[in-house]
Amino acid sequence: MTAAVDEKPVVEVETEEDKELQNELKLLVERTTDKDVKLIGPALDMLKYIIRTSTTSMTSVPKPLKYLSPYYISLKNTHRLMPPGPNKKNLADIISVLALGTAGGDIARKELDCLHYCLAGSMTNIGDWGHEYIRQLENEIVQKWSDEKTNEVLLPLIKDIMTFNCSHHAEIQGCDLLMEIDQLNLLQQYVTEDTYERMCLYLTSCTKYVDVLEANKIMDLVAEQYMKFKVYSRALVIALQSNNDKMVKEIFKICKDKVILYQLAFICGRHLYQVEIEPEGELSEDLISILGNNHLSSNFLAFARELDIAEPKTPEDVYKTWLEPTTPYFSIVGENLDSARQNLASSFVNGFVNAGFGCDKLLTTEGSSKWIYRNKDHGMLSATASLGMLHLWDVDGGLTPIDKYLYSTEDYIKSGALLALGIVNCRVRNECDPALALLSDYVINTNTTYQTGAILGIGLAYVGTAREDVLDLLSPIIQSCESVEILGITSLSCGLIALGRSKHGTITNILSKIIEMNNNEQLRSPYMRLAALGVALCYMGCKDAIEVPQAAMDVFEEPFRTMIQTMLQMCAYSGTGDVLVVQELLRIVEEKITCRDDKLRDKFKKDANHKRKDRKNNLEWDYCMGQAVAVLAVAAVSKGEEIGAEMVQRIFGHIGRYGEPVVRKTVPLAIALTSVSNPQLAVIDILTKYSHDSDDDVACNAIFGLGFVGAGTNNARLAAGLRQMAVFHAKNPSQLFMVRLSQGLLHLGKGTMTLSPLHTDRQLVDPVAMAGLLVPLVALVEPHSLILGKAHYLLYSLVAAMQPRWLLTLGEDLQPLNVTVRVGQAVDVVGKAGTPKTIAGIHTHSTPVLLTAGERAELVTDEYIVYSPTLDGICVLKKT
């Protein structure tokens, strides 16, 4: 063993040069008080020269500043007694710089000496004193910025600092200064072609951490700069982020380049944002077609052929039962106990896996109706509706194979065909309006089975369009319907159609009908959750606009009141990452729920402790329902902001351990929502633990959550885990049904699709996709009452969120164009110096390319110009 050596502090040895410098500085300081005025000026000039030319390392103070620090107080006194003139200003400059170091100590920083003497000095070439000096001035300006008189004095100095920052690669520092003093309007004069990209990127990233008014101000400024430098696609992204209709119209009006207009239309089509194009010539026809997503089916099929995955898959190919561990006899018996439910699961799996491919081995072959009849009653509805998934986006080719089922004598098959018609038209705008023409008669039919399929179908077909004629068709049904199921489905469809448009007529209709049932047993129906969600969807992305409707909801009893108010917050702030809203929602989750009287409280406890046999028909109040929805809302709000989404994961862990039973059921769903189509190992592990929970509902939701997390990724680890779960839950029909569903979602579109609402390099949150995700999640708050009951068809609302996860490059003629690209994990380059690499772990591919969550692409050569903000989705390229 060796003895420990005591570390002695390193003593700096002074050289002859250092002693000479000290003597020189001492002499110059003495000269500043000399009686001969002619000697003071040269002495001050020499002091300034020595300080400016001194070199330093990152870890030490320049020697002149260190040696002058003992004279700091005497220099201040000299300055005070000195008559006004150039000498006094030069001395003020020197004192200002000395205040930067250790000379002035805490008193100098407290009295803001650096800024005070800078203002008293010559105020010329302040950048010559270096970056650290500028940074200290900025800090003190922020502290001093208050009253108007001071502000006028500071403005010239701020302008000098901004000029220095923008010419010395410190633009980010300048942006921070102007944001701190609320003077961003000054920024425009300093933005140049070389600096606008870094500054705009930084300012955009800051919008997540400021209030709504400040964020809108920053967004407008950024969009203005992009427009100034004719980067229209980035300006459009900013306009869509701030939901600015006027700006979107202006961008389309100003832009004259055909290729750029195509690219703008593709971005709006992906976001399902409606832009009015005046029908003039061939260009406008192309733009209308792109905005209506009419190209989607043909491009997707060409993409499938390119990847060689056009061959249809059966549910057995997905389950891979031959890979499952050997199953004991009793497990096989258990699996076959509920064969109708397993057939229903296979119908969903078949639809999800072959979605958009137009062919399968169960429904589009000869004798396809045999498969439909292997399902029972309401199961036939979902089995027939899966035809819509197979022909997804293909309006022209999909209507004919579905049409023959409209003549069926079986009500459920006919209803399923009506829903399939709506699914085919989802996210696609066709000038012939086939969905409205075919479904409108059945919407007002007296047969509630037909109505169910037709109403949900029309909601999915016109999701996000806010079409008045479609809403007018559904409004009378809300007013006259007596069935709670029809009210729930109709309200939900109205919410999907009027998404985020605050259509007051629609909202009033739904609310007045719910108020009629306020003191009625019907209000306790699970379908009333869908009605409440319908109202909330009308306010999707509206933020502060929900204050009045939230107050109006006070007329309802608990827990319905908290539930609908929380849904409003969930939709209004969905994808914003607003920290204050997340905190408010967590407060709702923490609250201790109290019932109105002791009898109700006792009854509630009894129901929570003893599972009722007839859960499907249980209409008792669950007083924690509002808290359950609040957990989902936390996930929905934090969705658009990566750091927030990571932070809430830990909070969900605590809620899962200590929350009420109904709140625990929603925790796996909330965890899944924060990581849709992004199978992170940590998330998979948490959900796998929950999937073996003793509470059936928690286990069911966790299994479905695994499908959500892996949707469309073909993740091998997750696939193996689900196969093991199929064996583990072989005797439990509900859990096994969920395992099969998750296996179908995992292989969504044979691994070519995603459910993630984030697109365009995760800058935009698609409200239509968000709505499509929220419907099944809200329905699964009590899984046995809807999804595992008779309302399994609600799972088809996921079609609103389904999109190919591709990079497809097109030429100027909108035909596929193969180019070589580098693909890798996206790197956050906000505020980084120089030109850092934007992707890491690079692989080279030829387009079209499948992109996974968090990946980004860039062109290998400069042969083509890219007009998209980033290479993902559909990009139009122009030869250089």
TrEMBL record:
Binds to the intracellular domain of tumor necrosis factor type 1 receptor. The binding domain of TRAP1 and TRAP2 resides outside the death domain of TNFR1. It comes from Henosepilachna vigintioctopunctata. Gene3D superfamilies: Leucine-rich Repeat Variant. Component of the 19S proteasome regulatory particle complex. The 26S proteasome consists of a 20S core particle (CP) and two 19S regulatory subunits (RP). The regulatory particle is made of a lid composed of 9 subunits, a base containing 6 ATPases and few additional components including PSMD2. Interacts with RPGRIP1L. Interacts with CRY1 in a KDM8-dependent manner. This is 26S proteasome non-ATPase regulatory subunit 2. Residues 830-879 form the 26S proteasome non-ATPase regulatory subunit RPN1 C-terminal domain. GO terms for cellular component: nucleus; proteasome regulatory particle, base subcomplex; proteasome storage granule. Pfam families: PC_rep, RPN1_C, RPN1_RPN2_N. GO terms for molecular function: enzyme regulator activity. Residues 25-324 form the RPN1 N-terminal domain. Belongs to the proteasome subunit S2 family. Keywords: Proteasome, Repeat. GO terms for biological process: proteasome-mediated ubiquitin-dependent protein catabolic process; regulation of protein catabolic process. SUPFAM superfamilies: ARM repeat. InterPro entries: 26S_Psome_Rpn1 (IPR016643), ARM-like (IPR011989), ARM-type_fold (IPR016024), Proteasome/cyclosome_rpt (IPR002015), RPN1_C (IPR041433), RPN1_N (IPR040892).
